[in-house]
Every structure is written in structure tokens, then in C-alpha cells.
Amino acid sequence: VERVEFSVSVDGRPSWSAVLQPGRRRMIQNAAQSVDLEVDNAGGVVVTLNGETMPPLGGKNERKRTRYTLA
Predict the structure, then answer these.
(1) HSE-up of 52 (CA within 13 Å, CB side)?
(2) How far apart are CA 36 and CA 44, in angstroms?
(3) In what order do the strands lie in the sheet with 13-20?
(4) Mean per-residue pLDDT, 36-65
(5) What is the pTM of this model?
(6) Would you list the DSSP string of 12-49?
């Protein structure tokens, strides 16, 4: 989609940060309770959680934070 800078926390602990180029994917595993994402270009992100595509995080070049709570 578009270049996006990510910061990811898993279960409340920082996990990784990266810049992903268009078409790149990153899988987050081993989360028991929650996944927190902070992105600098919400319009360039597609999140899939347990096989289900989540609603858009926001617009192009919009900085967003969101938490996915796992059941």
C-alpha cells in the first residue's frame, strides 16, 4: 500500500519498530493479551487479526495509536 513506520508493543512490552515498504508484511505472534500499534501513516496499513481484516486505522500520513485486545 504505502511506506509506514511502525512501533509495536505486545502484552504491554515494546516488541519492535520498523519501516515497512509497500507490499511488505509483518506477523506478530505470541501475544496473549494485547497488541499496541503506533504508525506514522495510518492510511498505508492493513491489519488482519486472526484472519479478519480490521477497519482502517486512519487516513494517509495520519499518526495513530491503537490497541487490539485479544480474547
Answers:
(1) 6
(2) 17
(3) 13-20, 4-10, 34-39, 64-69
(4) 94
(5) 0.88
(6) TEEEEEEEE-TT--------SSEEEEEES-GGG---EE
Cell numbers of 50, please? 486472526
Residue 62 has what DSSP assignment?
Answer: -
Cell of 24: 511488505
Per DSSP bridges, beta strands 48-49 and 64-69 are unpaired
Q: How far apart are CA 51 and CA 2, in angstroms?
A: 21
What pLDDT score does 9 carry?
Answer: 97
| Per-residue pLDDT at 52 | 94
- On the question of pLDDT at 1 being above 90, the answer is no
